[in-house]
Amino acid sequence: MKRMKQVALAALALGVALSSGCNTETNKDVYYMIAANVTLPYWQTAATGFNKAAALYKVTAKVVGPTTYDPLGELDALQQAVRAKPSGILISVADVSVLQREIDAAVQEGIPVITMDSDAYASRRLYFIGTNNVEAGRMSGGRLVEKLGAKGNVAIFTIPGQPNLEDRLRGFKEALSVQPGIKIADIVDTKGDAKVAFDKAQEVLSRTGARKIDAIVCLEAASGKAVSDAVKRANLKDREVIAWDADPGTLEGIKNGTIDATIAQKPYTMGYFGLKLLYEVFHQPPAQLNKDFKGDFFSPYPVFVDTGTTLVDGGNVDLYLSVAEGNK
């Protein structure tokens, strides 16, 4: 419990540092974005979009969440946000079983909630903004089939149970179904920790003979650079690595040849569009907020807003690196 409070306090302190917008006595609009791990470049990019939209609408934005992958820490941040009675909440759901009840409680209290990046489909959230993760998983799997050909052993680096990552894994398996010679030999729980990913990568890359791992596929952002570093340290030239997201370390891995490609999402768009939509809901609320809009034929809201993905490889990585450099 003490550790959880420390995580929440650290997260809320960081949230204050990342806050933006006009915070005056006449401004009643306060919007929260709650991330799964606010220290990752991915979430800092999403926060930039969230804060940019807040400045446009002259409202207050608060970005909070744990500083490591910690669903209970995220729950604590959500509970504190709900107690503040904000105008709206944008949240990435690390663990549905931990967060769904509190999402429903927030909506019950009249607080609009939109999920981003990772969904809680059965909750009372209004809708989901993010990647079509099943399709993106197919994109990742299709790339691997191109690279490996007829056969090979693959290790998947992921966080089991996280909704968006489970969807990516499902799409990846669907893509592999056309090539039964490619086998998923291991599913590694990175716990969203780059150090864990690096240690696990070193272990799986050392296997030989029939257990040799021919490719590592990362379904989450934290492991891309870590796996790239492990491949580089082992001086391996015959392994394929496909990563996720366009973090600087991942892009550098593509540039130096330790990563073949990555699936780039649009976290800035998720954050930016998320605040705009929350603002719209708060200022033009539905007659009944606490209802299942997914099953309503006349719903004013979509079930899902797809922000898109791009495959980044050696052919277009310089463009992404130049954009990252320009946004420093």
CA(first)-CA(last) distance? 37 Å
CATH architecture of the largest domain: 3-Layer(aba) Sandwich
SSE order = HEHEHEHEEHEHEHEHEHEHEEH
**CATH topology label of the largest domain:** Rossmann fold
Describe this structure in words.
The chain is α/β, with parallel strands linked by helices and 328 residues long. The chain has two domains: 2-131 and 267-291, Rossmann fold (3-Layer(aba) Sandwich), CATH 3.40.50; 133-264 and 312-326, Rossmann fold, CATH 3.40.50.2300. The protein is built from eleven helices and twelve strands. The chain has helices at 2-17, 41-57, 71-83, 96-108, 133-148, 163-176, 194-205, 224-234, 248-256, 267-283, 317-326, and strands at 30-34, 60-64, 88-91, 113-116, 128-130, 152-158, 182-189, 215-218, 240-244, 261-264, 304-306, 310-312. Helix 2 links the parallel strand 1 (30-34) and strand 2. Helix 9 (248-256) runs antiparallel to helix 11 (317-326). The longest helix has 17 residues, at 41-57. The protein is elongated. The two termini are 37 Å apart.
